[in-house]
Amino acid sequence: MEAEAEAAAHGPGTMATLRAAKKVLRLDMKRRVAALSGPERQRQTEAVSRRLIAHPKYQNCQRIAVFLSMSDEIQTEDIIKDVFQRGKECFIPRYKPRSNHMDMVKLGSAEEIQHLPLTSWNIRQPAEDNSLEEALTSGGLDLILMPGLGFDKHGNRLGRGKGYYDTYLERCLQHPKGKPYTIALAFKEQICQQVPVTETDEPIDEVLYEVP
Questions:
Q1: N or C: which end of the chain has fewer CB within 10 A?
Q2: What's the average model confidence in pLDDT over 153-171?
C-alpha cells in the first residue's frame, strides 16, 4: 500500500495528514448516504443481498460473521435469515467500547436478534455472557461481512475510527484456521477513488455493491 509506505517514510506529520483526510472522507461518506431515500437504500440492500447470496464464498462457507446493521448501512436482516435457512453458523459482533474490544459470538436464531439489548449506537448486541460461543475459541470463521463508511476498489476500507475489525482480523491470524475471507457490503455511493490508509488498516478481500 503506497499510503502506508509514504507514512512510514515521512513520519508523524504524514500520519496526522492521513487522519485528517480520513475525518474529511467520513463526513463526505455520511452526507452521501444521508442523501439516499429510504426506498433507494432498500433497493440497493436487496441488490447487494442477492449478489452476496449468489457468491461462491458465501455459498461454501459454514461459519460466517455478520454485522447487525445501522440505518446508514446495507441492511443485513434478510442475509441473517438466509444464513439460518441454509443451516450455517452465524456469529455477530459484541463490542466493548471501554476497551475497544470486539468478539464475534454465536447467534442461536434470526429471531433472537429482536430480544438483544440496544447499545448507545442504537444497534442490538448480545449481553456480556461468557456462556456464548466466541468464534475464535472454537472453529474460527470462514467469512466475515464487513461494515464501513467508505471503500475503494483496491480493498481499502474507511471504518468509524475505532479499529474494532482491524484488531479482530489480527486475532484471526492467530487462529489455526487463519484469516477468514472478508466481504464488505456497500451502497454504491460509498465507493470512492481512494481511501487513505495507515499501517493498522487491514485491506478487505472484496467489496459488494450494486453495479450498473
A1: C
A2: 90
DSSP 8-class letter at 158? E
Tell me the C-alpha to C-alpha distance, in Å, between residue 199 and each of 4, 23, 52, 166, 195. Answer: 5, 17, 29, 10, 13
Structural domain that includes position 163 = 2-208
CATH code of the domain in which 29 resides: 3.40.50.10420
* Residue 155 DSSP class: S
Task: Locate 103 and state its grid cell.
Answer: 468478539
Q: How far apart are alpha carbons 142 and 149 in whole angstroms?
A: 23
Q: What is the reported pLDDT for 44?
A: 98
Q: What average pLDDT does the structure give for the chain?
A: 89
Number of domains in the chain: 1
CA dihedral sign, ordered 145, 69, 158, 152: positive
Model pLDDT for residues 105-115, shown as the tens digit of each residue: 999 999 999 99
C-alpha–C-alpha distance, residues 74 and 67, integer Å: 10
Q: Which residue, among 80, 72, 46, 28, has the nearest Cα to 210 in the 3D structure?
A: 46
Tell me if the pTM is above 0.85. yes
Give the DSSP letter of residue 130.
T
Residues in the chain: 212
**CA 150 – CA 185 distance, rounded (Å):** 10
Start-to-end Cα distance in the chain: 28
Q: Cα 135 vs. chain centroid, distance in angstroms?
A: 16
- What's the mean pLDDT in 197-202? 78
C-alpha dihedral sign at 114, 116, 117, 121: negative
